[in-house]
Amino acid sequence: MEQDQLLKVLQDVANAALTPADAIQKFGNESFEELDYAKIDTTRTRRTGYPEVIYGAGKTAEQIIGIVTAMKERQKSILATRVDSKKAAAILKTLPFLDYDATSETLIARAKKVEEVGNIAIVTAGTSDMKVAEEAAVTAEIFGNHVTRIYDVGVAGIHRLFAKLEIIRQANVVIVIAGMEGALTSVVGGLVDHPVIAVPTSIGYGSNLGGMTPLLTMLNSCSSGISVVNIDNGFGAAYNASMINRLISEAHE
């Protein structure tokens, strides 16, 4: 248990706001906080360097409210992904300190002071990939990374990519997001000297197969230095990119 949390528990006991028995239970479960429907991981930041994030799909508005309420006492930033607008509206009535981004479908509370490090470039093949891209961008930003957005530069008009190539090359990590056949990843991978993380999206016509076509294209890319995350997984790409970006930034210090 962190020192400030320990002090609060002791103060609550001294003020008779918490019984000694309840205090012992808190000490015993210091690695998580028990709710009826969830267990809040209270030591994730200490273990991994990153706070717990709420996956909103499949959770009710009331459950998310309860989880956020428990989490905000322990971590400075809050991120909930995959929260649709109807659910978000219900949550914001109770938790107005949260901000909702409709494009990425994320609910966030940012720490007042976040020192951005390094640079992650997020590159999309098309405008239709922006939902996944913004999930990645919001995630990377709340984890303290500087993010450069470069959208709609797919291979159908490859001159658009070349016009932004020098900006892309300045990033420590590049996240490439593409649907259809997913060819953009191989092109970018052959033009930069930093890690590339590929995100296949479910955007495309019938033979896109819900993202399976770009997934297989990216997995079979002939460009080296590319890693691939799951379909539409902007969050996972940003998490991985953030870890790489921080290692690079720390090495330059």
UniProtKB/TrEMBL annotation:
Pfam families: AIRC
GO MF annotations, alphabetized: hydrolase activity
GO BP term, pick one: 'de novo' IMP biosynthetic process
SUPFAM superfamilies: N5-CAIR mutase (phosphoribosylaminoimidazole carboxylase, PurE)
Annotated ranges, domain PurE: 118-250
Coiled-coil residue spans: none
UniProt protein name: NCAIR mutase (PurE)-related protein
Source organism: Liquorilactobacillus capillatus DSM 19910
